[in-house]
Amino acid sequence: MKSLFSGSMAVAVAPPLEKPARSETMWAQTSRRLKKSNTAVFGLVVVVFLVLVAIFADVIAPYSPTANNPNATFEAPSSKHLLGTDQLGRDMMSRIVHGSRVSLTIGLSSVVLAIFVGVPLGVIAGFYGGKFDTLIMRAMDVILSFPVILLAIIIMVMFTPTDGFWGIVKVTGAVAIVRVPIYARLVRGSVLSIKEKEYIEACRALGQRDPLVLIRHILPNCLAPIIVAGTLSVATAIIVEASLSFLGVGVQPPTPSWGWDLKANVAWIQESPWLALCPGFAIFITVLSFNLFGDGLRDALDPRLK
């Protein structure tokens, strides 16, 4: 407190008020924590790189991924063909680059589709309970009772294998179906916990309808676990897609697929090891990157770290 003297009269001057510090939002805290994790940042950088490769595959690939050249079969890596050519003379780099588009499209699309189906089922089961909960959760238990790959194979053999766009759509649907229970069970558990909070009871006491309570108060609090599960599920979806293609029931040739290229070239691994190693490494680095980023995101969103 300062005083200004003018004659015998003193006037007290209060110090300037300091602005209250802004509270950091959850997403700002998550971003700050995520930047501290070197492995998560590495995973994110690789994921962004792979997405860009998939988007600009037509520009990056030096040749058509489906163009055969009988005069250039089993060529070793060179300046003309950076990753060599396969038994049909197709450029392996072009197939790997275009294969990233297929794998990421199926991986991301199947996860989004599984979330759009699984989240509403989990919300209904957790919020309303009773017969809805019993019916939905028992159906999810039936799906979970099958091994993931086996169930995906069963779904795929119900349809005629095709290449191109519809082949990708069928694989995406099969992978999405086997991932739906993950989100249904996850969201159900979150809703069961959140709906008992006092502010939810207050909303109901004020006469807010159930859809409004779900959209404004319950679903936003379920976003963090859904995002983490979705990131990790992309890696699983890519493995499932590659496995289906490797077994011959996934994306059909000549559509470029890492799993199919691995299957087609594993027989030549002694004579031309790069033909099998390239698609295998592409699967490995993609799955690893999504897992590293997903693990870092989970740690950053963990409320115990607050």
UniProtKB/TrEMBL annotation:
Location(s) in or outside the cell: Cell membrane
InterPro entries according to UniProt: BP-dependent_transpt_permease, MetI-like, MetI-like_sf, OppC_N
This protein's record includes keyword Lipid biosynthesis: no
Residues annotated as signal peptide: none
Record keywords, A-Z: Cell membrane, Membrane, Transmembrane, Transmembrane helix, Transport
Pfam families listed in its UniProt record: BPD_transp_1, OppC_N
Membrane topology summary: Multi-pass membrane protein
Residue ranges occupied by any ABC transmembrane type-1 domain in the UniProt entry: 100-294
PANTHER family: D,D-DIPEPTIDE TRANSPORT SYSTEM PERMEASE PROTEIN DDPC-RELATED, OLIGOPEPTIDE TRANSPORT SYSTEM PERMEASE PROTEIN APPC
Protein name, UniProt field: ABC transmembrane type-1 domain-containing protein
Species in which this protein is naturally found: Candidatus Entotheonella gemina
